[in-house]
Write a structure and sequence with these properties.
There is one protein chain. The chain is an all-alpha fold and about 70 residues long. The protein has a domain at about 25-65. It is about 50% helix and about 0% strand. It contains 3 helices and no strands. It has helices at about 25-40, 45-55, 55-65. It is elongated. It starts with about 25 loop residues before the first helix and ends with a helix.
């Protein structure tokens, strides 16, 4: 079964048959899920755990670094 990356219908719809594609979560949703999991579990070998321990200023700094 093909999983198209975008509309496949000549009208710009997901399907000419009125079906909707089932797509996987976006990378941002996946990232949010992972960060939430790390926050709840706090594994000792996790960099995200270290960021939570360091506090909001360090988290903001890291987000800024990654944004650049």
């Amino acid at each position: 079964m093909a999983k198209p990356n975008g509309p496949t219908c000549h009208l710009g719809m997901q399907s000419c048959f009125g079906e909707k594609n089932i797509s996987k979560p976006s990378i941002f949703t996946q990232l949010e899920t992972l960060i939430t999991q790390r926050y709840q579990e706090r594994p000792t070998n996790s960099y995200v755990t270290k960021l939570f321990t360091a506090g909001s200023n360090r988290i903001a700094q890291k987000v800024g670094e990654e944004g650049v």
